[in-house]
Write a structure and sequence with these properties.
alpha/beta, 2-enoyl-CoA Hydratase, Chain A, domain 1, 2 domains, three-stranded mixed sheet, 11 helices, globular
Length: 271
């Protein structure tokens, strides 16, 4: 597949739009009329896109959304349908978990660009990503408790690990929204930028990552995610780091990296 410019072949009614260009795979949530709520088809398409990017040599993934809002949660009409049968409900929950787990645990760094509302399932999606850019107008919240629900796609666990127990419980109990500066202060997002520059800033960051060694970035992601897991000990993490360092130092990208250092130029890692 030509990585210089790859566009998906979906029609205008597709729930997501995807592209792969210069090492950056882009997933755009494309249901703005319903606030980009996550349907089963949408989740399946995201999963397929991630698998395609991993197979076709992407270095990083950028998750964006069309319209005024990033995502306001699961498609409640589908929630109404699946809750009538235990097997179907279990399948719906498992699908959401599997897709977000793939984003979080997969080999590619994932950058999210969030504008407008990022609520419930939307915040669960953002939490599964590695780096989050937020527009100044972005608002974050977990709406589940207001509807008699709880997070079902990992939100309770990822939110608590990201911002701490007291803040996470407060956000989930109250179902209130916080603004982008508060989200930055709490560590929920990494960067806050003017809304007009959101896409360009996030894309520029993703493109920068795409110039790095894919093996190196994947190792860094594995190590960081391992360290963030509350059940992992420091000795286990240090042993994992040693194994990963051995793997990288005996790989092929290190040759280009050291040559570029000696020659005082930017590395050009093979794709």
């Amino acid at each position: 597949m030509n990585q210089a410019a790859v566009q998906n072949m979906q029609d205008d009614d597709a729930p997501i739009r995807t592209s792969l260009r210069d090492g950056v795979g882009t997933i755009e949530l494309a249901r703005p009329a319903v606030f980009n709520c996550l349907s089963r088809q949408m989740l399946s398409d995201i999963d397929h896109a991630m698998a395609t990017f991993e197979r076709d040599g992407a270095r990083t993934v950028l998750v964006t959304a069309s319209g005024r809002n990033f995502c306001t949660g699961a498609a409640l009409d589908e929630v109404e349908q699946v809750r009538q049968g235990e097997a179907e409900l279990c399948s719906f929950l498992a699908l959401g978990h599997a897709v977000l787990d793939r984003i979080e645990a997969g080999p590619l760094p994932v950058v999210a660009a969030v504008q407008g509302l990022c609520l419930a399932g939307g915040i669960e999606l953002a939490l599964a990503c590695d780096v989050v850019f937020a527009a100044e107008d972005a608002r974050f919240g977990d709406q589940h408790a207001a509807l008699g629900l709880i997070p079902g796609w990992g939100g309770s666990q990822r939110l608590t690990r990201t911002i701490g127990l007291r803040r996470a419980l407060d956000l989930m109990y109250s179902a209130r929204w916080i603004d982008a500066p508060a989200a930055l202060q709490w560590g929920l997002v990494n960067h806050v930028v003017p809304a007009a520059r959101l896409h360009d800033e996030a894309l520029s960051y993703a493109r920068q990552l795409a110039t790095r060694s894919r093996a190196g970035l994947s190792a860094i992601k594995r190590l960081g995610r391992h360290a963030a897991n509350a059940g992992q000990s420091l000795p286990d993490g240090l042993r994992l780091e040693q194994r990963e360092a051995m793997h990288v130092l005996t790989g092929t990208d290190i040759n280009e990296g050291l040559a570029a250092f000696r020659e005082r130029r930017v590395p050009n890692f093979a794709r």
